[in-house]
Records
---
Amino acid sequence: MTEQRRRRDVLRVLGGLSATGITGLAGCTSGNETGSTDSPSGATGSASPTGTDDTTATPAERSVTDAVGRTVAVPETVDRVVGLGSGALRFVTYAGGAESVVAVEQLESTNADRPFRPYTLANQRYTDLPTVGTRKSPDPERVLQADPDVVVYGYATPDEADEMQNRLGIPVVVIRPGGLTQDLRDRFFGSLDLLGTVLGTTERVETLRTYVEESLADLQERAGQVEQQPQGYVGYLGRGKHGLTFTQPSYVPFRYGGVANVAEGATGSGDGGGGGGGGGGGGGGGGGGGGGGGGGGGGGGGRKGARRIEIDPETLIQWDPSILFVDLGTESYDALEDPQYEGITAIENEQVYATMPTRDYGTNFGTVIADAYAVGAAANPDVYDVDPVEKANEVYETFVGEPVYDGVADAYGNGFGSML
């Protein structure tokens, strides 16, 4: 098709150049950079042709509207895909496109220092694929060498997507994965639906949509049956050296697991980064409210509702949660044995449990659901009468194609269950 022929022409030109990244490519294609292919955000009509014919569908192409309102002409059949940016490869996998992936970002390849995400564990071939640069600096020449039919770009702005598309001569489709809470769920399903259309996997996407909707409805119903939600706290959120006092005021597994977050509404210093499937909304029910409210911060710069925050040890002691959860994405859990915390009810009664990281290069959406069942089973076993390990394998098999709970647990050095 025309697009593919043009792509090969660009590859031949690049074959005579040294690898100079985006800057070098700009010299070859700068004539097209000012031609915007945007429609207003949320638009559904076709975009006007620009300096290239990227958005003008030929008989062998289809027009789709991506998550930022751009109209993009994609091939009738998509056999080769590259994902760039947070959530792109994850959602290609969710949508049933794993076998179409021809290259990955360096982050997604083998790295002994970084635990793997469930979709990578389920698709070991990803670790052996060529890389297309880092997550912050994708290498356009490497993308072209991979020869994808479509590039899926997570969380790109319209300008970023247009720039990449014009430089590559390859359709670039933007997704914004959203979250599993009510206020962000349309984006989650919208991104899945978009990729189902692009990849020709709409039946697979509909199967996943049904499973997610049924799982969230089940969790929400169970949460509503909890008459008095226990006061819970989750710490150690985030990969690296974050400690027990690094938490999330809107931890989604609590909302669906029937646990009142003592940090709800708290402020503190934090990175404000997304996590846990998005803040707000959720499926909480029954009695009990968050006990945090005021919560002191670990420094300035905090803002109410920040997705992850650092609090003072004194604040955690004051909150005195009756059950405590540990996100397994960090390096050490020594604070659980720190004498200053030994009077906290959860630690004193050995009600400390592990959850899998809900966030690693974007939200691990399957893990959010698996964690919600694990939280519920630990905090409200009479209502959440499920085996969390069996449920996690069911979730992972549905989301990424394989029951990889054991692999996830091995990667993080622990699994669901008591930490004391």
---
Amino acid sequence: MDDWDDEDEDEILYESEEFREQALPAERANEPIISDDLPVLPLRGVVIYPMMWLPLPIGQERSIRLVENTLPNNRIIALVTSKNEEIDEPAPNEIHTIGTAAQVHRVLKTPDGTMRLLVQGLERVRLLEYTQEQPFLRARVEIIPETMAEGLEMEALMRAVQDLFRKLIELEPQMPDELTVMSINVDDGRQLAYLVASSMRLRVADAQAILEMDSVSDKLMRLIQLLKKEVEVLELGRKIQSEAQGEMERMQREFFLREQMRAIQKELGEEDEQAADIRELEERIAAAGMSEEAEKEATRELARMRRMPIQAAEYSVIKTYLDLMVSLPWRNGTSDNLDIRHARQVLDEDHYGLKEIKERILEFLAVRKLRAERRAKQRDENEDVGDKIRREREGLVLCFVGPPGVGKTSLGISIARAMNRKFVRLALGGVRDEADIRGFRRTYIGAMPGRIIQSLRRIESRNPVFMLDEVDKLGRDFRGDPSSALLEVLDPEQNREFRDHYLDVPFDLSQTLFITTANVLDTIPPALRDRMEIIQLSSYTEDEKVNIAKGYLIPRQIKENGLRPSEVKLADEALHEIIQGYTREAGVRNLERQIGKVCRKIAAGVAAGEIKRSRTVKRKDVALYLGKRRFFDEEIEERLENPGVAIGLVWTEAGGDITFFEATRVPGNKGYTLTGQLGDVMKESAQAALSYIRSRAGSLGIDPEFFNTTDLHLHIPEGAIPKDGPSAGITMATALASLLTNR
């Protein structure tokens, strides 16, 4: 009550005798009598509890009238909290029905016309009925008794509240330490509940709920829950504050040490890390030969980096970006060798056969040579439409299409060697994200450039031979369409200013020679296929495979397995045996594996001292090195001896294969069964084949009544594989004719 000492500018309107004597409630001889009809003072945002003293500021006109008209005649008023604290003068239905009867001990009037009351809570009351609404509220009330259990349960609840309240006071610096002593000295559960509740910063709803509880045990239990929550929040806040303080101290210490280091380095004539980074980047930007737009962007980012502390997270992001920009080959490249004789020699050294393919590649290089010579003589800046069309034709991209193992990738390597260019290969199989081509925007954490820019940075050349491998196996999903992104890369009108999302400045790809490879054309999008010149590579014949093995595969495997050419030889008959009995492919990859297996076994014998002289592998020796034969030609001859069997050719991604058409007959009634997972087109071909045989029954020597008494069954083996196509009719007719003529 010390805050209510006389103030020079406040007018004392009323003071109770108890206040003047500074008497505490326990020291008064007589408790005031609470009438059953009391003035009602609505409160906003605060709840008054019994047995508690509290100052109340009032400024509403209705509240001021209540004080002026009732004091000092009636010192007891009902203090009830409003349901909505935004309303200045609430109506009766906007006020809670349970409040506290309180005694007014002092009234001060301030110079601004408002009042300050010092009140003491007495008992809980319930508002039964309002008897007056103007000029202030009055209501009939009844005192609400409270139930309080005794014994160990009450003592345990009180101790729990006191312990938690003490922790709260320790954590909350704004709460006076005297509250700890006061709470410990209270031996009444009701008084303890109201003391703790009035001292905490409770929400109005929680404070009102505690007031309305009839059981003191329930009040204490609810306070335990609220105290635990508040203590946990304060402990977490203190922990966060401590961690933040520690981080701040660490940063301040680091900053201080860096400043000291900078001062020491300055005295020694040395540069600090940031200054060294900036100086190095400035020199590299100046020497990189960037385009005007790229150099402007790099300079702008360098200026941002200069203003930024080295420990900032953005500093390393900018440094990584600038490192990429200065590492790209803006001007670096190799000088082209467009000597056609040299190119022919390189292609012949690296590849056997492929005469038409080599001629087309040489034509391609010859055109580039002639155009380069023409540009050197004519430097006309005004490009007409014809020049533009010619430049578009010059930018055509070669696409090697063929089965696996026929030399598509090695052709690209040979072109790079013939032109004296560096070679880089990018596998596109399974790529589904457009960002793999164009990169990620720098706004994303961990962003990086696309694989095109990364490859050029790694190869350090602006004009390599760039092979995009397996372009037919590009995927597509919700992350974008990589094939559409490739259009910009391969289009000569667009790739002069290719803009990677991470780099965000144009980069010239027009000097790069792009070559693509694919196994099939069907899965390549038409727009992408339109930008490429297709060069088909067919499968090798058996003789070509033998020559490739003798000229390329065997020498390479001898070298890779640590042998000398004099220690192992493979006869032509052995190579034919390996090709016929152990490989069945369009290319030569599996053939090289089998030759490598033979060389490894011979190398093991040489290393163990079991082989002392040169070993020549003949046909009969192949099984000793490679095991049992996998494919048998005799099977074909044996099956063809039976009537009703014919051989057909089928297309596969590996280049092609043969399959058997088998027909049989059983007694029946005009039945015709087709099995082997045939498509609709092949089923129609089978019907056409049967109709053709029936129409030629006389010339084939077949009894016309035969078809009325016999069921026919046409089967194509490997039934798990779906089959379809328009060219199987002649083979089906042959199988049926063989069956019905028994030939």
